[in-house]
Amino acid sequence: MSARSVRDRRASAACAPWVRTRLRTAPGTAWALGLLVLLTAFLAAAFPRAVDRYENEGLRHDIAAADPGLSVLELSTPQPDLQVPQPLREEAVSAASLASVHRAVLSRLPDVVRPDTAQSAYGFHTGKPISAREGWLPRPSLIDPELTYSTLSDLPDHATLHAGTWPAVHGTVTAGTPEVEGAVTEETAKALRITVGSTISVPTQGGTPLTVRITGIVTPERPAAAYWSVQPLLRTPSLVAKPTRDIPRYYWIAAVLLPPDAAPALLATASQPEAFWRIPPDASPLTVTDVAALRSSIASLEGGPGLVSMRAVAGANTALTTDLDAILTRYDSLRQAIGPVVMVAAVGIGAVAAVVLLMTIGLMGGRRRSELALLRSRGGSLRGIGGRLLAETVVTTVPAAALGLLIAVVTIGDARLWPSVTGAVAVAVLVCVALPLCTALPHRRPRLHGARDDLMDARPSRWRTVAELTLLVLAVGAVVALRRRGTGSGGGDLLVSAAPVLVGLIAALVLVRLLPLPLRLASRSVARRRGAVGFLSLARAGRTSAGGTLPLLALLIALTTAAFGGSVLAGIADARDDAAGRAIGADARISGPGNSVPLPDRLIREVRKAGGVRDVALVQIEYVVLPADGSGDQRTKDATLVGVDPATYARLARATGLGAFPADRLRASAAAKKSAPTKDPVLPVIASPSVAERLGDRARDLSAAAGNFTVRVAGTVTRTPAVSGSDFLIVDAASLTRRQTTTLLVTGGSPDAKALRTAAHHAGKDVSVRLRSETREAFVDTSLQRGAEKIYTAAIAAGAGYALLAVLLSLLQTAPERTALLARLRTMGLTSRQGRRLLGLEAMPQALLAAVGGLLVGWATTALLAPGVDLVSLALSAGPESGGDDTIALRADPWSLTLPALGVVVLTAAVAAVQAWRAGRRGSITELRAGDPR
Questions:
Q1: Which of 629, 660, 855, 924 is deepest in the core (most CB within 10 A)?
Q2: Positive or negative: CA dihedral 631, 636, 637, 639
Q3: What DSSP state is assigned to residue 718?
Q4: pLDDT digit string (tens) for 116-139?
Q5: How far is CA 436 from CA 74, 254, 611, 795, in A?
Q6: In the beta sheet, which residues pair with residue 88?
C-alpha cells in the first residue's frame, strides 16, 4: 500500500459525512420540516381513506336498511307440470329436493353476491290466498278472511314456541293427504282468534278439502330480519280494504305455516302453488369497488347467463326478482352527486398545503443562501450541491411521510391502500424534488451581495405574464364549466373542482400587481407628516421581496376554501332547517291520524302549560272539493281547507317565514264592509296560487264537513305552516259552522318534548307529536351525508391551520432583518412602543391585503359558482320532504367570510408584537456585528 493512498484514506476518514453534519448542526430545522411533511402526508393519505370508508359505510347502510322485500334475491318456480307423473311432482317439492336446489343455488351465485345464509329461507307456498269459511274467524265487513299456506325452512331456528307443539308430518304426505299440521304466529293468532287445536278447511281440486290443524303458536325471534320481513304476512296479518264504489269494506289476510315435508299436500289446491328460495345479501364485506360488478351480476341473474345457470338447477320456468339493483342505482347516484362537492374541498386544501410546503422550502433556502453561495465560490457544482441537498432532504422527508401514511392507515380503516400510498408518496416527492431545485438553482449564476428585489420596483417578465394569462384562461374555463355542468350531475373533473383554487390564484396575482400602487400613495402622504415610524413601516413593506406571492397565494386560497366550504355547510344547514320547518310548520306539531281527528280541550290546556311553549295555534284541517273553473273544464279538484285564528296564525306564518300575510285579510267583517249585508256573508280566504286561479275573482260556494259557505280570494301565498301541499285555502275558523281543532302548531325556543308527548298520550294513543328538531336530525341519516360533511369540516379546519402557518412563515422569513432593524433604530433612540408600532404597521399592508382580498374573493367565488353547485344530495337526500326543492341555492356565509379574514389580521399583529417584544429583550450588541449583511 502506497503512502499516498494511506494519506487519502486518513483524509476521507477525517471528513465528516454531509448529511450527519447537517442534521447535527440544524436539528430544529430538520424536525420542523419532518413534522410538516408528516402532517401533510397524513392528510394526503387520510383523505382517500376517509372517502372510501364513508362510501363503504353508505353502501352497507343502504342495503342493510332497505326493506328486505326489496334487497332480497327471490328465486321462484311454478309447480311441476300436470303432465309429470304425480309421484315425481311430489318428489320435486319435497323438503329434500328444495334443500338440494337451495345448496346448488348458493354455490352458483357470483362471487360478488355474498348471501346471508343465516336469514335465507326456502319452501313451497300457495300463489293466491284462499278464502277461509270457518264461522269462528273474524269478519269486520262480513267478508271471509283469506289465508296463504307456506312451508318454511328452519322454522324452529327463527322462532320460539309460544303454545302447543311444533307442526310435524306423520308418515308420507302426498297430494291426497286429508290432514296436515300447521302453526301461526302470535300476532296472527290474536287477530284471527286462532287457538291450538283450531282446524281450517282448505278446498282442493278433487273436492275433498284439506284440513289444516293448528298445533302451535310461535313468536318470531327477529321479526325485522329478512327471514320474516321479506314476506311480512308470514308474521303479521293485514286488514286490507276491498275496492268498492261506496264505503270501503275490510277483510283479514294472513298466513299459516306448514312443516317442510307437508309441501306435496298443497299440490291439490287450485291456488297456483310455487316453490321459492329467498336469499338476502350480506352487505358487510361489500365495498364501493364492488358496486359495478354487483350490478352486472344482478343483471345477469335477472335475465342473462346467471339466470340460465339458475334454471339448470331449479327448473326451466324459474325467475329471479330483486330490487337490489335499484338500491345500488340510488346509492351510486347519491355518491356521484356528493363526490364533486367534496372534491372541491380536497383540491382547495391540497393546493394550500402545497403552497405552504413551497413557502417552507423557500424559507429554508433563504436561510442557507450565504452558505451555498460560499460553496459555489469555492468550486462546488450545482449537481453536487443539489445531490447533497437531496440526500439530507430524503433522510428527513421519507421517514416522516412513511410515518404519516402509517398513522393514516392505523387510524382510518376499511379502505383501499394504494390511494393513500399515492398521496403520501406525492408529498414526499414534492418536497424531495422542490427543496434541492428551489435552493440550488438560484446559485447557478453569481449574485451581487446586497442586491434587492423590491416589490415596489419589480417589473414582471414576459414569461410571468404568459403564465398568468394561461391561469386566467383556465380559471375562466373552470368557472364556466362548473356553472354550466354543475355538481349535481356527478360529472365533475379536476378542472371543475379546482375552480375556487384557480379563482384565488388569479386574485393573488392581480393583488400582487396592484399592491405597489396603494403603497406609493400611502408613502407620499405619510412622508409629509412628522415622525419616522409610519414612513419607515411603509418603506419596509414596499421593500418586500417581489417573490412574496406565495404567502398571499396561500392565504387567499385558504380563505377562499374556508369561505366556500363554510358557505356549503351553511347552505346545507339552512336547507335542512327550511325543509324541517315546511314538514312540521312550527317547532312542534300535535295531531291525530290524517289531521282530521278532533283534539280535546284538555290537551290544548296542557300543551299551553308545557315548558318552552310560547304560543299555540289552533288549526282545523278539512278537505273540500273545488268547483269547476270557468274555462269549460268540468273536472273537480281537491284542496285542503285550513281554519285558523287570524291573529295567531299570522304570527306563526311570519315567524316561520312560510307565507306571511296580514291578519286583517281573513276578517269577515272587513269583507262585509265592502258589500251590502246579505244572508250568507262572503268569507275572505288566503289561497295558494293554483286554488286562487281555480276560484277566480268572484265569490264561489264551497261545501265541506265544516259547513257550507261562500268564499272570495283575498290574497295568495305559496306556502303555509299547516299543510305542506300546494293546494290549500285559509279561512277564519270563527266563520265555520262546525268548528273543531284537529292540529296544534306549537312555537317556542325549545318545547318540552316529554311534556308534550305525555299530554298527547293522555288524549289518545293515536295522537302524535312531531318536533322540528327531531325532523331536522332525520336529514343526516345516511353515512354518505355524514362523511361528506365531516370531510368538509376537516378541510376547513386544515385550511385554517395552513393559513396560520403561512402567516407565521411569511413573518419568520424576514424576522432576522426586522430584528436587526430594530437594534439599529434603538441605538438612534427608538422606544419599545415605537418598535412595536413599526413592526405592526410593516406587516399590516400584506395582512390587510390578504384579509380584504380573501373576503372579496370568497364572496365572488361563492357568487360565481353558486349556479353550478347543487346541495340537494348533501342536504336532503334522506328524511321527510327530501324532494321538496329541485335545487338549493348556495349563498355566501358572512361568518365564514369574516372570521378567517379577521383571524389573519389578528395573528399577524400578534406575531409582530411578539417579535418586537423579543427583540426588545435582546441587546443591540447581540444583533449588530461587524460584517453582518443584515
A1: 855
A2: positive
A3: S
A4: 999 999 999 998 999 999 989 998
A5: 64, 79, 68, 29
A6: none
